[in-house]
Specification:
about 270 residues; mainly alpha
Length: about 270
C-alpha cells in the first residue's frame, strides 16, 4: 500500500483513496466488511459519512491494511476524532493527531539516521560545503590522495587538506597505509537545528554553480510555481518525503562510484 495514512486528516478520505487506487482491485469493500465482521452496505455507509466504525472494527481494519504501529495509532485516533461528540474531546484528539503528524514528518526519524557529533563539532562540519563533500569523496576508492580529491571537487589542494584535517579531528575519517577511509558516513541535522539554514544555503549555491555548466543530460532539475488545494499541498509534501526515503534506502547499500547532490524544495509562498 503506497498511500500513507499520515497524508490525511480524515480517515474516510484515506480509505476512499485506497478504494480509488487502480492497484486495489474489485471487491475491496466486501473484503473490508469480512475483516470487520459487518455487512458491505455498512462499509458503504461509513465511507459516505452516514455511520461510524467502532474502535474494534477500526482496529480489525487497521490489521487488514497491515498498518505499522504508529500508522495504526494515528488511524485509530482519526476514528476517535470522527466519533467524538464534544468540542473539547475533538480538540484533545486533534492535538494528539497533530503531534503524531509532526513526529512522522521528522525526516531524521523516518530515514533512521543518527548523528553522534556534539553541537560544537556540527557547527564546524556544516560551516563549509567542502567538509561534507570531501567526507563523501573519501568513500570513492580512487580518491586516495589530496590531489585527486581537489581535482574531483574543483577545490584547491589547501582546501582539500584542511577538510581532511577537520574530518580526521572529528573522527569521521581515518588515515591508512593506502590513503583515507570513512569511519562514520551518515549525518543528519534535527529539524530545529540552527545550522539548517547554512546547510541548505550552501548546497543550493553549489546547485546554482552546477546550473551554469548546463549539464542538462546528466542532471535532473525542475522549477515551477503552482496553484493548488491545501489538501494537495500536504499530499505532495508526503509524496516528496517518500521519494527521499526511497532514495536514501537506495543509496545506503549502493557501491561508492560517484558523487551526487540532492536538494529538494517544496514550500508555500
Amino acid at each position: 500500500m503506497n498511500t500513507s495514512v499520515f497524508m490525511f486528516k480524515d480517515f474516510r478520505k484515506f480509505l476512499l483513496d485506497i478504494v480509488k487506487s487502480p492497484a486495489t482491485g474489485r471487491g475491496i469493500q466486501a473484503r473490508w466488511a469480512a475483516a470487520t465482521l459487518c455487512q458491505p452496505a455498512y462499509i458503504s455507509h461509513v465511507l459516505k459519512g452516514r455511520a461510524e466504525f467502532s474502535l474494534e472494527q477500526a482496529e480489525a481494519l487497521s490489521n487488514y491494511l497491515n498498518l505499522k504501529p504508529k500508522e495504526k495509532e494515528y488511524f485509530l485516533n482519526l476514528i476517535q476524532y470522527s466519533r467524538a461528540g464534544t468540542s473539547s474531546l475533538k480538540s484533545y484528539l486533534k492535538s494528539k493527531l497533530d503531534a503524531q503528524k509532526a513526529e512522522f514528518d521528522n525526516l531524521k526519524q523516518r530515514i533512521n539516521i543518527e548523528s553522534k557529533m556534539n553541537l560544537e563539532d556540527q557547527i564546524l562540519y556544516y560551516s563549509r560545503w567542502q567538509y561534507s563533500a570531501v567526507h563523501m569523496c573519501v568513500m570513492l576508492p580512487e580518491m586516495s590522495t589530496v590531489q585527486k580529491i581537489s581535482q574531483r571537487l574543483s577545490i584547491s589542494t589547501q582546501e582539500a587538506e584542511e577538510a581532511l584535517e577537520i574530518l580526521l579531528r572529528l573522527g569521521l575519517i581515518a588515515k591508512t597505509s593506502s590513503g583515507w577511509k570513512v569511519t562514520n558516513t551518515a549525518m543528519h541535522l534535527e529539524n530545529n537545528s540552527p545550522l539548517l539554514k547554512s546547510l541548505h544555503t550552501q548546497w543550493r549555491l553549489k546547485s546554482i554553480d552546477a546550473i551554469s555548466l548546463l549539464r542538462t543530460k546528466q542532471d535532473l532539475r525542475y522549477s515551477g510555481c503552482v496553484a493548488l488545494a491545501r489538501t494537495d499541498l500536504e499530499q505532495i509534501k508526503e509524496i516528496l518525503t517518500q521519494a527521499i526515503e526511497k532514495s536514501i534506502a537506495q543509496v545506503l547499500p549502493s557501491p561508492e562510484e560517484t558523487l551526487a547532490v540532492m536538494n529538494v524544495d517544496f514550500f508555500e509562498i
